[in-house]
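Sample A.
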Amino acid sequence: MFTAIFGSFEAGIIYAIMALGVYLSFRILDFPDLTVDGSFVTGAAISAVLIANGVNPFVATIAALFAGFAAGCMTGLLHTFGKINNLLSGILMMIALYSINLRIMERSNIPLLNADTAFTKIGDLFEKWGIDAFFNQILTMVGLGDSLPETWGILIFMIIVTFVIKFLTDQFLQTEIGLAIRATGDNRRMIRSFSANTNILVVLGLGLSNALVAFSGALIAQQGGFADVGMGIGMIVIGLASVIIGEALFGTKTIARTTLAVIGGSIIYRIVVTLALRAEFMSPGDMKLITAIIVIIALTAPKIIDASKEKKRKARRKAERMNVIQASAQVKGDNHAALKSDS
């Protein structure tokens, strides 16, 4: 069980970067960007091809980030300058990226099992420094020696990377350009009245969103040991699930709190899916169904809870009004009785 939870936490922190990208497009820009399903694979494909050809894995991962940025900008250009509906522009780019990804990989799947990836290098470094042995010794002392992870390097490294990206995202959204992008998502007509070029802001926002998505795709390919042309199917739903779950559980009072909630939502989503798949009647093919159910619950549960709270508030106000009316009637009755006795 510990190994399964550890693996889901590890995957969740990597997918959290993708979820932050979805948050930028879906919440900040109010743009339902389906490019995510394609740009995720683009990041995985570019990093896998470069690593397979001997390029440094860290350089390959950065290259994937820039490729995702270019894909997001293309979607933004289709929408802003091509005057294509935002949903349709994302669909068109997603379809185009499927063929582009096949061109990049030249086949449907690229294995990385025997290649040096960023994570194998990090794992070797942690083993050399004795960090893995230190944490495994602690697990053995608490009775979990039978379920030791292969390395702690991926988890610790990704926690650092993800929170650095979260911090940079928070800081960017507080800058003048970041505030303009947020205002564009809230009210595009209003921000235009201040002479801001909303077209450029939308293109930039979508570029940054898909850059994070492709970056996550590159890391997932290196963690899983392969890049596949179909690995991006349903990524937008997973990203939305992470955003919605995080917002429902942790709140959205500030940007910093919301981005933290997105990361938490991604981890919780992965843990829930892992635990659900461990049920005897579930199979790996049910993962998409589980995802859909989680999203439905995350969307409907807050509304049901709010409706229940509102119903209780109305009942409480009604009870208070009735108490006031009864108290007033009692006072009037006492006054009337007093007048009657005086007369």
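Sample B, a different protein:
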Amino acid sequence: MKNIKLTAISTTVFERDHALLTGDGFVNSVYPGWTDCEVNVVINEAMGADFCQLLVTPEKNGILKGQNIETQIFFYVVEGSTTLQLDGGQTETLTKGSYAYIPVGKSYLFNGFEPNTQILTFHKKYELLEGYSAPDIVVSHESKIDQTIYCDDPNLLMQNLLPDQENMAFDMAINIFTYNPGANLPFVETHIMEHGLMYLQGQGIYRLADKWYPVRKGDCIWMAPYCPQWFGALGTEPAIYIYYKNVNRFPIQP
């Protein structure tokens, strides 16, 4: 009998109201306009979510090209650098920590990727609000966004990459949450907002529903509405994650 090598080991977990996605089971997907790149669908409507989260690893000659019709996309450069061409011929250079929000009705073209570039994206169908137009394109870098103290704890720091609280036209928020070593959420959150996130640095323990998971850099999490959630940072460096949530719309159509 031939020796059988067992490789069916994964730390990914999928539950009714949450998922921990550690990348050990990702399989490449192919999409129109996105060529010469590896695309991993991390979160999608197929699992019960109302948004989509992708992790893209382009080759040097890769291209990400599209025209947003019903869906808005947020691009965040996890590693490396790229060139972004926008409507009207505007060109931007995006490096690690840069991001671009492309609203409905706008096009984009990414190319000129540095080796080992990795891009995180969040996609959501846009909900138009009466009296407001769709937001404009946003291109910036996380270093330009002030950190604010969360829940009166100076060891919990928040950055709002999109101006959702200042502009009701936005129906999605993207934040970066930093936990200094040993910091933790002050209570178990239970709310209507849905989350998708990716760890950029550090490690810790995440409670999702009634289960507890060790998490670290590179791990992704999906949290359905009302999934109880709590996090505590471990180790000697800050734990940092970037996350999506839906905002600024009534929970039921008036």
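Observation for Sample B: The longest strand covers residues 52-67.
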